[in-house]
Amino acid sequence: MIVMLHSPVTAEQLAALPPEFRALLQAVIDHYEKRIAELEQKVVNLESRVRKSPRNSSLPPSTEHPHAKPIPPREKSGKKRGGQPGHSKQERSLIPTGQCQAVVSVKPGACRRCGVGLVGDDPEPLRHQVWEIPEIQPIVTEYRRHRLPCACCGITTCAELPSGVPLSQAGPRLVAFVALLMGCFKQSKRRVALLLEQVLNQPCSPGWVVKLQDQATAALTPVYEQLAAQLPKEPVLGIDESPTKEGPSKSWLWTFVAKTFTVFTVRTTRAATVLHERLTETFGGVINCDRAKMYWNIGRPQWCWAHLKRDFQALIDHTDHQVKRLGHDLMRPTKELFRHWSRCRDGTLTRRQFTRLMKPIRKTIDSLLLRGVFSGNRKLKGMCKPLHSHRDRLWTFLDVHGVEPTNNASERALRPAVIWRKLSFGTQSAKGSRFVETILTIVETCHRQSRNSFEFLTAAMNAHFEGTTTPSLLTGA
C-alpha cells in the first residue's frame, strides 16, 4: 500500500511567502510528491514479483532452487534413514538354471578344519547368479546386387533390394533405438553418436544421427497424423503449452491429452490458431486448461483449480490486509473442494455424495468472488471480476462426468518435454520440430497405454521399409 507523505511546508508558511515564490514552491512540491508516489508503486510491484513462487503463481516448480523450498510441516519420527526393521525385502529372484547361458560348479578342494581332500557333489548347492552385458557387435548384412546382361538384347539389369531392406545403412531397430535415445532418454545428437560408437561399436556421426531422425519422422508421421485427427472427436481434452525455441524464433510446445493418447505440437505461435488447427470447428467437448485468453472460445472450458489455488495463495501473501483476508476466505473452501475430490476419485465418496457436498462450497466461493468484485480494491476486482463473470467455467467438472477440476494430466504429460527442452534448448529448424512433436507423441502415448515404445517404434520402422500399413496407437483401431 502506498503511503503519501505530508508536505514539510505548512499552509501558513506558504501563505506568508510572496505570491510568485509560493506558486513556484507549490509546483516543486507537487512534482516530487507525484514522483515519490510513482517510485513507491514501482517498489510495491517489484516486491510482489520477488514474493512470487511456484506455490502462489504459475511459475513452474523447476524455477525454484531445491534449497529454497519450505520444509513440510511434519514432525520428525526419530527413526534413522533407510529401510526400517520388518520392512519387506526387495531382492532379485534367481532365474531357473536352464535359462542361464553357463553354469559353473565350484567345489572345495580340502576340508577347512583338517585339510583332507574332498570329493562328491552337494545335492542342493548354494546358487549365485551374476548378470553381465555381452560385448555388443552390430549385425552387418551385405546385399550383393548383381547386374546381368541380357543374352537377347544386351541390356544389363540390376537386381532390386529385397522387400523391407532400407536404402540407407541403418536397419529398423537401429533407427528406432536412435529415435528413442533422443525422444525418450533426452540425449543430444552428439551424445547419441558417442554412445553408438563406444557402446554398440557402431560407426556414427552427428550428421548421420540427423538422417536417421528424418527417417524416423517419415515412418511415424502416419501414426502421429492419425492421433491428431482423432482430437476433435474426443469428449474431454487437457491442453497446456510451454515456451521453447525453433532456431532463433520463440516457439511453443503444445500438449493435447485425451483419455488414451497424447499429442504434442510445436508451433511458432501461442495464438488460438493452433487450437483451431488441431481441434477444427467440429470440437464440442470439454477442455481442462488455465485461464489464458486463447482457450476462452474453444469448446466448454474447465478452468484449472490448481492454478486458482496458487492465485488464492498469492492473495494471502499480499501486503494489503483486505486482499489477504479474501485470500484466506477463498482458500478454506478450496481446500474442502480438493479433500472431497480426492475421496471421490479414490472411491470412498460416491459421485452423488460429492455433488451434494459441493453445493454449499460452490455457493460460498461464488459469493466470495462477488465480494471481491464490489470490494473497491483494484487488485481484488481485477482478479475476481472475470472469475465471477465466467463462474460456470469453474464448475464444469460437477456437471460433466469424467472431467477433473485440475489440468494436472496435461502438466504431467508436458513435464518430460520441458526437461527435454531444458537439455536441448529447443530445435534448430521446422524439420527438427516435426521430429520432436512426433517422437514425444509416440513415446508418451505408448507409456499411457503400457506399451513397449521400442517395440512399437521398431514395428513402425519395419512397416515403413516394407511399404506396408503402419501400426496404430488408437485403441480399437
Note poorly predicted spans: none
Helix residue percentage: 40-55%
Spell out the helices and strands N to C: HHEEHHHEEEHEEHHHHHHHH
Overall mean confidence score, pLDDT: 88
Q: What portion of residues belong to β-strands? A: 5-15%
| Major sheet description | 5 strands, mixed
End-to-end Cα distance, whole Å, is 61 Å
Structural class label: alpha/beta
Shape verdict: extended
Determine Rg (CA atoms, Å). 33 Å
What count of helical segments does DSSP give? 14
Spatial arrangement of strands, main beta sheet:
5-4-3-6-7
Number of strands: 7
Q: How is the topology of this model organized?
A:
Elements: H1 11-15, H2 19-50, E1 147-149, E2 156-158, H3 172-183, H4 189-198, H5 206-230, E3 236-246, E4 249-257, E5 262-267, H6 273-279, E6 286-289, E7 300-303, H7 305-316, H8 321-346, H9 351-373, H10 378-389, H11 396-399, H12 408-424, H13 430-448, H14 453-466
Parallel strand pairs: 3-6, 6-7
Antiparallel strand pairs: 1-2, 3-4, 4-5
Helix pairs in contact: 3-5, 3-14, 4-5, 5-13, 5-14, 7-8, 8-9, 9-10
